[in-house]
Amino acid sequence: MGHRLAARRDALAPVQRDRVALALVVFAVLFGQVLLYPGVTDLVAALGAHAGSATGALDASAWFLGAEFVGFVLCAGLWGHLSDRTGRRTPFVVAGALGGALGYLVLVLLGRGGALAYEWLLLARFVQGAFTIGAFSLSMTMLMDLEGGHGKNMGAAGIAIGSGTALGAPVGGQLYEMGVFVPLLVAGGALGGAALLATRVADRAPSGTTTGLGDALARLRETPALSFPYAFGFMDRLTAGFFALVGTVYFRETFGLDAGSAGLVLGLFFAPFALLQYPMGVLSDRVGRKLPVAVGSLCYGAVVVAVYLAPTLALAAVAMVCLGVAGAFVSPATMALVTDLANADDRGVAMGGFNVFGNLGFLGGFAVGSAVVEAAGYGAAFLTAGLLEAGVVALALPAFLRLDLPGSPTNPK
């Protein structure tokens, strides 16, 4: 008996080590990304964007943040296809992380002094995003390839995402106090470290797959249930994008915060979001995906509005904590739902599709948020974001609750 337990521990040790390594890669990507958010209006001004007014600053920042997410949207599925087609993941994760690191450094080199036209910097930002999504999406796909419950593996991804964003916001705010380009340098260093770390992770991709992108997408069309996690992921990322841009500027203008303080306020959302990811992923393995997704999404939409209605900074901070708790219910369960529904040899494309919809949500958050602020003010923008989140979930909820889901590996039907 003791020999069997020891053998099982020895077999699981590489899996646990790789789970930690992949989670750290995901962490590095999100940490570097969110470092830029607290002082993004200062950054785009230093890069040469002409944004004299508050709405002008929002527009220039939306273009800067949006350019990266356009790269995410256009290339997430491509990375997944290349990975599934070749039966390899690790080389693409390394290449994506290295390309993203170089992209951040190029922005620093080209942006100093505002000598280069802002449009060229947006192109560099797009290329940086196109590489970065390879490291992010395929690291999550590699977590899907690991043994153990899908909720556990996606919980590891979720806690990496939450921790990266939780630390990225306050640390980024403090880095802006040291210099407007310092967050870019640190982000590049984080992705460089992620590339080095990824070289030590074993490839567990299904070998010998010859599925073309058209065949894979055809099989995804045969699984219409994937539309549920894609839709929920879209809306959750929309509100995240909204807070990354509009929320940051709102806190700075309304409560007179500098970049460092704004980063701390954003961290009040991301800290509980991070700490609860793993236990909520395990919970979804035990109780199923439906309850966490339904309850968390509806509460999330309501709390978005509550953040704006809070009359003081202290109450707004409490609302941000509640927002993080609600988000933690949704994120790992939604990602695990993609894993439950996808075939083993389609996981790269399935997760790529999830990230495409999620990144479209981020783009929507930037675009819708800044447009509504310009047209009708912050109150209408917060109300729009909250109603979109809760409304889409409420409309989809009856069909989602009737969905016949496969059991997770740790809780089979």
Report on the structure:
It holds the Pfam family MFS_1. One of its GO terms (molecular function) is transmembrane transporter activity. This is MFS transporter. This protein has 15 helices and no strands. It has a single domain (18-401), classed as Up-down Bundle (Growth Hormone, Chain: A), CATH 1.20.1250.20. It has 413 residues and is mostly helical. It is globular and about 50 Å long. It has helices spanning 2-34, 40-46, 54-86, 90-111, 118-145, 150-178, 182-198, 213-221, 227-255, 259-275, 277-287, 290-309, 313-341, 347-376, 378-401.
- Seen as an oligomer or otherwise, the chain set is single chain
- Named at the architecture level, the CATH assignment is Up-down Bundle
Beta fraction: under 5%
Helix content: over 70%
Roughly how many Å apart are the termini? Answer: 29 Å
CATH homologous superfamily designation:
MFS general substrate transporter like domains
User: What is the typical, i.e. mean, pLDDT?
Assistant: 81
CATH topology: Growth Hormone, Chain: A
Main sheet record: none
Count of separate structural domains: 1
Structural class assignment: mainly alpha
Helix-strand sequence: HHHHHHHHHHHHHHH
Low-confidence stretches: 5-11, 207-213, 408-413
Specify the overall morphology.
Answer: globular
Q: Identify the CATH class.
A: Mainly Alpha
Write down how many β-strands occur, each being a DSSP E stretch of 2 or more residues: 0
Topology diagram in text:
Layout (H helix, E strand, L loop, with lengths): L1 H33 L5 H7 L7 H33 L3 H22 L6 H28 L4 H29 L3 H17 L14 H9 L5 H29 L3 H17 L1 H11 L2 H20 L3 H29 L5 H30 L1 H24 L12
